[in-house]
Amino acid sequence: MSIEPYIKQLLWAHDCVILPDFGGLVANESSARLLVHQRRLLPPGKQLSFNPVLRNNDGLLTDAVRQGEGVSYNEAKRLVADVLTSWKERLQKGERIRVDEVGRFYMNAAGKILFEPSGEVHFAKSSFGLTPVVAVARAREIPQPVITSVQETKAVNIIERSITPQPEKKEITVRRIRRISDWKVAAVVPVFIVMGAFLAWTISQFGSPQPGTDFSSLEMTVPQEDSVVPQTSSPESDVTTAPVEDHQAEAVSDEKKEDAPPAQPAPVESQPIQAPPKENRFHLIGGCFRSKRNAEKKLKELRKQGYDASIAGQNERGLYRVSLEGFTTREAAEARLEALRAEHQSAWLLSL
């Protein structure tokens, strides 16, 4: 006969089950707990322990066997005593006695009976249906602080490089243009010197120019002077041959007499040499725009304010330059620039 089923049945209903002349199993209420060495999480229930001092028969186990086996109380008492006596003999031989879902009994070297609960069943009706859970160990991720610090340093360097004050760029652009203008002036000066020398030599060889000739707008050498055919006419011939009335002829003759010197013959009329108009090579820039529409808008605003504004082409970055005024000489442009800066502080000189 086996008494293990009766022991498990009594542990569900009672907190203590005494094995006569062997010891008592005590069930104490406990909360959920973790068995580290077994890596198991146990639900709330009763924690079993063994007390070898509780040896007196309280009749609880004997009565359960009587009802289960259908025998008398004395017969049930004898059956329980026979089973527990055989357990003692086996323990003395060094064997271990295992009670399913309850635990194991064994004897130490001093002859004392010890108990190890299995923990498979919690024996608590309030936690019925809950089973132990196996805890799985997780691998920890090791942070890498060294790599993080290097990335942060790179981000700081990128921010420092990207911060560039805008006024610095404008100032550098003006200086570079002025240097280029100085080279252009140095290259053009010898040309004007040669032109002046050639003009002086021409005057000395062919005489002074006539009073009606205008050389103020001359820039280049003028070989066309020899090809100009002077148109001469005497006052008398003009008056007699022109198909006009008498009073008109008298007015024309009187006018020409006033123009001509009294001691010289009639002046020779000549057509002045028309030199091509000078192009404005120096501009006072009031702003640069990436969009042509914005540049034209700025142009209209400046013209409404009375400026002779124009668009002075595009720079190497494709920006449209809006000119406040244009000049043919650097001296005139620089003089005007000082006056304009009272209203346009960002104006600067451009040489084409």
3D structure, described in words:
- With 352 residues, this protein is of the alpha+beta class.
- It has 3 domains: 4-134, Irregular (HU Protein, Chain A); 180-259, no CATH class; 282-351, 2-Layer Sandwich (Alpha-Beta Plaits).
- 41% of the residues lie in helices and 18% in strands.
- The protein has 9 helices and 13 strands.
- It has helices at 4-13, 60-69, 73-92, 145-162, 166-206, 235-241, 246-259, 292-304, 330-340; strands spanning 16-19, 23-30, 33-35, 40-42, 45-51, 97-99, 103-107, 113-117, 133-134, 282-289, 310-314, 320-327, 348-351.
- It has a 4-stranded antiparallel sheet.
- A hairpin with a 5-residue loop joins β11 and β12 (320-327).
- The protein is rod-shaped.
- The two termini are 121 Å apart.
- The model is unreliable at 207-263 and 265-276 (pLDDT under 50).
User: Looking across the biggest beta sheet, what order are the strands in?
Assistant: 11-12-10-13
Helical run tally: 9
Residue runs with pLDDT of under 50 for 5 or more positions: 207-263, 265-276
Rounded radius of gyration (Å): 62 Å
CATH homologous group name of the largest domain: IHF-like DNA-binding proteins
As for the number of domains, it is: 3
Return the structural class: alpha+beta
Taken in chain order, the helices and strands follow as HEEEEEHHEEEEHHHHEHEEHE
Largest sheet: 4 strands, antiparallel
CATH topology of the largest domain: HU Protein, Chain A
**What does the overall shape look like?**
rod-shaped
Quote the distance from N terminus to C terminus.
121 Å
Can you identify the CATH class of the largest domain?
Answer: Few Secondary Structures
Mean pLDDT, all residues: 72
Extended strand count: 13
